[in-house]
Amino acid sequence: MGSNVAKTLLREGWEVTVIDESKESLLRLGEDYAGGFILGPGLDIDILKEAGVERADVFVASTDGDNTNLVICQIALRQFNVPYVVSRVQDPFRAQFYSDQLGIKTVSPTLSTIHMLLDGIHRFQRSES
Amino acid sequence: MFALIIGGGKVGFNLSEILIEMGNEVMLVERRPERFNFLKERLEESVMYGDGTEIYVLEQGGIERADVVVAVTGDDEDNIIVSQLAKEKYGVQKTIARVNNPRNQQTFDLLGIAPTVSSTAAILSLIEHEVVPADRLVHLLTLREQNLEIVEAAITGRSPAKGKEINELNLPEGILIISILRGIHSIVPSGSTVLIEGDRVLAILSPGMDEELRNILVEAAK
Lengths: 129, 222
Fold this sequence. Notes:
The complex is a heterodimer of chains A (129) and B (222). Chain A is of the alpha/beta class and 129 residues long. Chain A is built from 6 helices and 5 strands, in the order αβαβαβαβαβα.
């Protein structure tokens, strides 16, 4: 997910740096990836600084760990005042609480899928009636 | 008292057993199936299966009536999220969180999660205490909320404070000598107490006074 966002933004002319704990994600970014890459845990404040969080306009946390994403986003928001911070959160309930109460924009793939499924069913329902 | 404990590793399990023995009500939450089965045999109704960072699991565990929520999983981010949900969503008065990696302490502080407990940091400070060179200050305790720290300094043969009364040291504001350990005795000092070689001096400091105290007690600045 993160690698697709990174590659798309890069094509659109953004300066992009990716942080990941594994070197394999560099493979996923592809040979022609021309952005920055920092190897290490995104939870680590020194790693975030090395990646340039202090001058970032946008911060995206899209690891597969909901809690990791929510904690890193709060660091970006509260310590580094990044203007736009968005977190991937699988669990719709946690996503809602953190966006309502703590000002983090959340994207919940689970919730999106539920909406798409229901939309499909409703369209079917309408076509039948 | 009712304690909701998230994370059934060694810390969470032992804590649960002791709290129950003391007559408290406990609910321990564990998400690893095999570990849960082990805990179930020991703790019976006081343990439940689930991811303690999920809202419905916390609610099933009774977070709404918990007197204290203890987050002691092996993942710092999980402990942070549990403590945040407990405090900010459910208004739990007391939360205690474990810090696994001392590097993450600043994140707990940033997000206002206190008090925290870190066995790694505790062991580290014990090691520091045992193997510290004589010319350094040993940090014994940091009182985060009060913004004070307690340190220990050794008076060696070349210490500028050796043979002097405490009055003569002209300690600046922000440094207070609270005790002197001399052999097996501890002395509550007065202004006329004389420091001798081998003394270990306990002092309470405001932030940033470490170097100043070191210059006065341990080694004059070069």
